[in-house]
Amino acid sequence: VSTGHIEQTDSDIVVHSLAEPERFGALVDRHLSAIYRYLARRLGADLAEDLSAEVFTTAFAARARYEASRADARPWLFGITTNLIRRHVRAENRRLQAYQRAQSQVTHHQTSSDDLVEHLDQLAALEKVAVAFSELDSDHRDALYLVAVAEISFKDAAIALGITLGTAHSRVARAREHLRDSLSGSGQEKEGEPRIRTEGHR
Amino acid sequence: VRNRYDELEVLRELFDQEFEPGAHTWTTVTARLEREMAEECSSYATGRHSAGRRLRSLKLAIPVAAALLLLGAVSITVFAKNASSPHAIKQSLATNRTWKLAAFSTPAWAQQSTIGSSPYTLTCPTTSTCYATGPSEIPSGTPSSGLPPSILEVTHNGGTTWSASSLPLPDIQFTGVSCPSEDTCMLGGSTIVDGSGTQYLFTTTNGGAHWTYLPIPDAIGLSNLALSCASTSACVAIDAGPGPDGQGVEDTSYATSNGGVTWSHVSLPGTFRTDALQCPSADDCVATGQAPGAYRVTDPMGTGGFAGSGAVAYTTNGGLSWARGSVPSPQFTIAGLSCSDASHCVALNTNNLITKPISTVAIFTDDGGASWTTSTIDESTSLNLSSTACSSSIDCWATGDSLSQGVVTSSSGSSSPVIFATSDRGETWTSSPLPAAQGATSTSVGEISCPSTTECLALEYQNVPGSSTNADLR
Q1: pTM metric for this prediction
Q2: Considering only CB atoms, which chain A residues are within 8 Å of B58?
């Protein structure tokens, strides 16, 4: 029986690993880079390594509950990762604040006044978005990050976050609106809309 | 104030740092995972984990055969149907793919004399819980040509013991059943004994202990219902209705996302008669069956025939719209459908058993039903396979009968029950000899269900000398 050239789905790997645990290693080969990148961008490289290991050990321990009909395990792994990130939301906020400070202290060596103005505008936009992103609560922050930065589909983001597709769309739309408002300088919450608060305010 | 910058572009720039795991990260992750695996194996060794014991024994039983490792320890419970002492037999394929008697059970319906060769259904949402349906004993006074009402048996211990589920109505004939979870099932059927043909949908959320009525979708007919629930809330039902020309049949798809409280419906593309339906996810379903050609008034066997060719339809939006799949050399009908996930399915493509020697091939899809490729199971014999189940995208089983060459119909010539297995998505198939209780003869294998990669269950029919055998089961 020849199986070498058959491309197994993630689901196949997970279900086979129930009887043969060592097979789970193939899932690490496939997805460690994406998980590490997700963690490092949000929490920094220092935490990313340790948490990457925690993601895969958590997934391994929970593999019996994996929904085998989902061929792609990425949403499942992103969901586990997102839950871990939530435990480190302070680290993420510190990282965003550090970024803001770094932008305000940066020394500029632009060749012309136009370039300098443009550059300062960009830095200001980055700082505003960093502030606005840090103001989002975890629900909105995670949804926006997964769809906009990790660039996974709304459907997969909904699976990762354990929410309906409609809720995923709604959270991303509201989070985008908050960022857009911050860029436009309005920064005001609209009447009748629920407030999007930072984790620390909850 | 108009934004100069797009908020998403800025957000992406904010996180635009390239990170890749270095060698140290790979080592750390791998080492932590290996430690976790070792701890799991350690818990097996100390007897704290029953699945682990199975793992250890499996590894001892399979020294080097990588191909067989793919199959895993497939233990199959076979329920023997006969008049006096039906058996449930468990079997491990781990060592040599042969079947062994391992346990016995006595489903109530298996003890009763029946007529007709109505197919029994078997659906196992978990390795411990299975639901089996079949015709009950024919009530006295019922015309012999009539079909008896159905009964539903439930096991919660992997087939060791069965109990009859108490239904709200006694005389229902099931035409569709789907159990997306251990506790939840949906049943469709109609009353038959009183001739009223009243149609019903039921659901249970406590493993068949109690059933409640569901509203019947407008215009649905449950006489030829295919039903599949991807979850406890998302179900699709396909019903065969009269075709646009009044002669053919036109199937209609009904979809619910609230457990059957409300339904929406659309017609399947073209004229289509559904034999099997599988919804591996709430959005993705595949239906197989026939696209009718012309009606055959007479045929060599003197029975009415439905001349058509196998066809496939699929949906990616939970049954709100359907498209036809492309099948190479479709035969008479396509049935025996099983989907391991939203992309991967296998079905059985069987030719017209009225006019040609019976021949079944498997067809596989890896794009949710849009396109299919053919896999020949066994060219050396005439196969009439009816049920298939996949535990992964590459591990599948097919059950049915092998008939002597040249046999034109299933009612003549000799046949023997077979189970074929593939662990490479149909590249190769191997058959497994089947067991029978002492003194009994295995006559046929029916439905098979694989709730996990390590366990499958199948129905087997046996003749036992000294008991009143069921000739119709041959």
Answers
A1: 0.56
A2: 19
